[in-house]
Design a protein that fits this description.
Layout (H helix, E strand, L loop, with lengths): L2 E4 L6 E6 L9 H12 L2 E6 L2 H4 L8 H18 L4 E7 L1 H12 L5 E7 L24 E6 L7 H9 L4 E6 L19 H16 L1
Parallel strand pairs: 2-3, 2-4, 4-5, 5-6, 6-7
Antiparallel strand pairs: 1-3
Helix pairs in contact: 1-6, 3-4
Length: about 210
């Protein structure tokens, strides 16, 4: 299993950060998320699911992904001393982390951080992928772009709103890969820095 750990010296939180369906844990987008989180004192441990390490285009079945989370969580507990442990990821990786917590519910996980949660397939809006979310007992943070084609705002907002333990933060003009529209985005804050700042504020609110 390919792994990348990014642990700043001041980190007291560690996020297991899983990649999306189309790119590995070393992708520039993943690097940018991890770097921005490190800037606010949140460490990350990234890994590749088996299909990515083996060069297969079809993603692994859910049970295989959950086993991968078991393996990476064991490594995290052995190699780090972070006070707070979180789980999450970008797109597919984030969705698999929600299945992990719904089905296996690791007791030492403090919460879930979901970057571009893929609520539905592009151009096929529905909420079937959210049916298991009420089974998750831990707090959840959703960070989604207002132009995300895999999470239409009029579906994601009420879906998250029904969850008593979840927060949704919209990243203005960002798409599924956090690409923004510079001409129409009113905020001057870097989108990755914004996501990291909100993540840090959310973690602080849990204590």
């Amino acid at each position: 299993m390919t792994t990348i750990i990014h642990l700043p010296g001041n980190a007291d939180s560690l996020l297991i950060l899983a990649h999306g369906a189309g790119a590995p844990c070393s992708h520039p987008h993943m690097n940018a998320i991890a770097g921005a989180l490190a800037d606010v004192g949140i460490g990350t441990l990234r890994f590749n699911f088996p299909f990515m390490d083996e060069g297969r285009r079809r993603v692994d079945k859910i049970e295989v992904c959950l086993d991968a989370f078991d393996e990476i969580l064991k490594l995290a507990r052995e190699k780090t001393s972070a006070a707070s442990l979180f789980i999450g990821g970008h797109s597919f990786g984030g969705r698999m982390s929600t299945h992990y917590m719904a089905e296996r519910n690791a007791p030492d996980i403090q919460g879930l951080m979901l970057f571009s949660f893929p609520l539905h397939v592009a151009k096929k809006p529905d909420t079937k992928r959210a049916l298991h979310l009420p089974d998750i007992e831990r707090p959840m943070l959703f960070l989604s772009g207002t132009r995300d084609a895999l999470a239409e705002p009029d579906l994601l907002e009420p879906t998250v709103g029904k969850l008593s333990n979840a927060k949704l933060h919209w990243l203005e003009t960002a798409d599924h890969s956090f690409k923004i529209l510079k001409r129409t985005r009113t905020s001057t804050e870097n989108v990755y820095a914004e996501a990291a700042r909100v993540s840090n504020e959310w973690i602080t609110s849990l204590s």
